[in-house]
Write a structure and sequence with these properties.
Strand order of the largest sheet: 6-7-8-3-9-10
CATH superfamily of one domain: P-loop containing nucleotide triphosphate hydrolases
Oligomer: single chain
Strand content: 25-35%
Largest sheet: 6 strands, mixed
Structural class: alpha/beta
CATH topology of one domain: Rossmann fold
CATH class of one domain: Alpha Beta
Number of helices: 6
């Protein structure tokens, strides 16, 4: 897949995107006619109540799910009707995922958990570099059970970014963390976005996190209810909730 991208150029184009689960009277409309462009290097926050369509949208953008109708393009590639093999390559080469739960392999050290991903990446960064970006170099020989929740989440972020993804997709990355630890994780995500130019999309229930975004996308009932651009991006240290 083509990987070149220019600053402020759309890296993702979403047109008339809908997702329906089931059919007939039991059909659930998770997304309805969503239109959106995401620029290279942008930091987006997706807000909305449970069931508003946030995770469904993120999963489609990450190639984990397919829409019922509409189009999704990553640079010059149509993801909507791409074969499974191409979607797998897209996820491996271009997308890093961070979820609320860390999904680390307990029998592997921090370094080994991160290094595991480099085997499927075409141009991974050195593992030491990824660990340094998340400030975990001193903990690289520890096992997940020896880490705090925030440290485990930072391992998950290092694992996501070591393959140099263009998209970092985060679904409630601070949802299982306390206030102070959540801020540390947000600082890491902001650093990846700013220093590496990685396009970041973060789902959260926490409206305060919207302050650190370039744009805030609010979803309701599967539709985009509003798009806002804060006058200034706040640092995680400036957030409070």
């Amino acid at each position: 897949m083509t990987t070149a991208q220019q600053p402020d150029a759309p890296v993702l184009r979403i047109r008339s995107l809908s997702k329906t689960y089931g059919s007939g009277e039991t059909a659930v409309f998770a997304l309805r006619d969503v239109d959106l462009e995401v620029r290279a290097g942008e930091f987006l926050v997706l807000l909305g109540a449970s069931g508003s369509g946030k995770s469904t949208l993120l999963n489609i953008l990450g190639g984990l799910d397919r829409p019922s109708t509409g189009e999704v393009e990553f640079l010059d590639h149509r993801l909507t009707d791409a074969p499974d093999e191409e979607l797998t390559r897209y996820r491996r080469e271009h997308v890093g995922f961070v979820f609320q739960f860390y999904n680390l392999i307990p029998s592997l050290t921090v370094r080994e958990n991160v290094a595991l991903v480099t085997d499927i990446a075409s141009n991974p960064m050195p593992v030491d570099e990824a660990l340094a970006l998340v400030a975990l170099t001193p903990r690289q020989d520890h096992f997940p059970s020896q880490l705090s929740g925030g440290e485990q989440q930072r391992v998950a972020i290092a694992r996501a970014i070591v393959k140099r993804p263009q998209l970092l997709l985060c679904d409630e990355p601070t949802g299982a963390l306390d206030y102070a630890t959540g801020k540390l994780v947000l600082e890491v995500i902001a650093r990846i976005n700013q220093e590496l130019g990685t396009t970041a999309i973060v789902i959260t229930h926490n409206a305060a996190i919207a302050g650190m975004a370039d744009r805030v996308i609010r979803l309701a009932d599967g539709r985009i209810a509003s798009i806002e651009a804060p006058s200034r991006r706040l640092t995680p240290a400036e957030l409070s909730w």
